[in-house]
Amino acid sequence: MQKIYPNKSTCFPTVAAMWRKCRQCESAARLDGKTAVITGANCGIGKYTALDFVRRGARVILACRDVKKAEYAADDIRQQTKGSEGAGEVEVMQLDLASLASVRQCAQHLLDTQTHIHILVNNAGVCYCPKTYTKNGFEMHIGVNHLGHFLFTCLLLPLIIRSAPARIVTVSSYKHCIAEGIFLNDLHWERRPYSAFYAYSESKLANVLFSAELSRRLRGLGVTTYSVHPGLVATEAGRYADESFFPGAQWFFDNVLAYFIKTPEQGAQTTIHCAVSEEAGRETGQYYRDCKKGRQSSLAFDEKLAADLWDRSARLVGLGDWDPFTALDRPPKISMTTPGNSEQTRNIYSYLPS
């Protein structure tokens, strides 16, 4: 099988760099009157990002698969900000990134109910899953981490552009450097021996490429984009470790590595920096770690790869010939051709998935 776009670079942090004291977002910028949408914000990095935004005065929407957990998180944020001067609001919407129907339904609800979206944080993700597939037949890592967020972002772009200045932050990982390439002819690991480690790494490379290509396509429209490495963080992302690595791996992560890695609050700092700081607002399409620009894989600079991945992703999620960058004054017609589904066309503003 032909290998597409091999990676010849390394950008791994040293052990000392991973364990050094975490940098904090130092910006005191307020978000009064701003609306932010954060995916996967019921726990971990996403929840602390939401808490920070609410403290800055934003109205924050937690877009989560598990609505019950998200409501608990929202209640906790309300309690922590109760009585705080200038605190914003928080609400919950259902979003399952493993279902394109759910992505469309959530996007439609946001388009119907929101007048602006100033900040979109693509935070949700899966990590080191055994070989499983989304409801649309995509390998789980690429399906949730990249394709779900790709469609969600594209559907919201007209509203985000109309809200400019606006920012889009996508949570990636330094593990994107491990990926040997993007296998455009085998995104779903049907022709290769499956590796949860490399499947995750390729999905994180897709995040970096998506953010970079998005910045190029948004040039001059007042929307800036960022991909971020939050650091090695103690979250629920390692819940599949026993199945994907070895029995007891999760215990090792929770009880040994936990002493050397960031807390979710520390891990949220780079996302927050890119979303609010004046310094980051002067940049776009960059990769950040520890609240500053970081070193990327050489593949991150491959514009042809990024464009090819964009085109392939648009076909897989059924965007058809609809262009979110020129769709400000007309509702998008979305062609819904996905594995196992016949082609249909619907107006996203009136589409209700079965």
Structural summary, described in words:
The protein is α/β, with parallel strands linked by helices and 354 residues long. Helix content is 38%, strand content 13%. The chain is built from twelve helices and ten strands. Strands 3-2-1-4-5-6-7-8 form an eight-stranded mixed β-sheet, with helices on both faces. It has a two-stranded antiparallel sheet with strand order 9-10. It starts with 14 loop residues before the first helix and ends in a 7-residue tail after the last strand. This is Retinol dehydrogenase 12. Keywords: Oxidoreductase. InterPro entries: NAD(P)-bd_dom_sf, SDR_fam.
Topology:
Layout lengths: L14 H5 L15 E5 L4 H12 L3 E6 L2 H15 L7 E6 L5 H14 L5 E4 L17 H23 L3 E6 L24 H22 L5 E7 L11 H4 L4 H7 L8 H4 L1 H8 L1 H4 L4 E4 L2 E2 L9 H15 L15 E3 L9 E3 L7
Helix pairs in contact: 2-3, 4-5, 5-6, 5-12, 6-12
Organism: Periplaneta americana (American cockroach)
Pfam families: adh_short
Protein name: Retinol dehydrogenase 12
